Amino acid sequence: MPIEGKRYLRARKLLSDVTAQLEALGMQYHLEGGTLLGLVRDGDLIPWDDDLDISLSSELAEAFVKRAAWPLRLRGWRVSVHRFERDGVGWKSGQIRIIKIRNRRWIFLRGSLCLDVFPKYQVGQDVFWTAKKKVMRAPARFYQGCGWISFHDRKLAIPLAHEEYLSLKYGDWRTPVRQWNCAVNEGTVVGDL
């Protein structure tokens, strides 16, 4: 479901609530995927993108769940944690694979709006993460420090050398592509999960 109208306003609130919570806890994060692409290329969220994406180091993932999940739930968001079922490149079984933060639909049901938090696992000079049952890899230098981008009344963290990072992920990232599947099209895919 595309991000537009009331959904767009909820998406902005979700991104603001999560990044504000990370900043209040002193946890470094970066915008990721289509969220980063839209804000850098268009200055806004991509209308046809169906989710939001951020990343943080794997060392912060457990602390984020312990310290940020409850405050986000009090704000009305649904937080779920998905863990690895077996060891992989840089991670062990039981470590966090992805954190999904969604709007609530009624009291117990999850809504269609989602923000994915991708823990990045560093191995040597690279970081690894997973999405859609694929293993992704990028140079760790993109995540050592951050730049900033303005979005409405906020400054949000983006990877260093973000244009180079977007080129790695998307190739010609300046040209909008409506049909995109990170498991097939993304330049960071290195194998199956």
TrEMBL record:
Residues 24-66 form the LicD/FKTN/FKRP nucleotidyltransferase domain. GO terms for biological process: glycoprotein metabolic process. PANTHER family: FUKUTIN RELATED PROTEIN, RIBITOL 5-PHOSPHATE TRANSFERASE FKRP. This is LicD/FKTN/FKRP nucleotidyltransferase domain-containing protein. It comes from Solimonas fluminis.
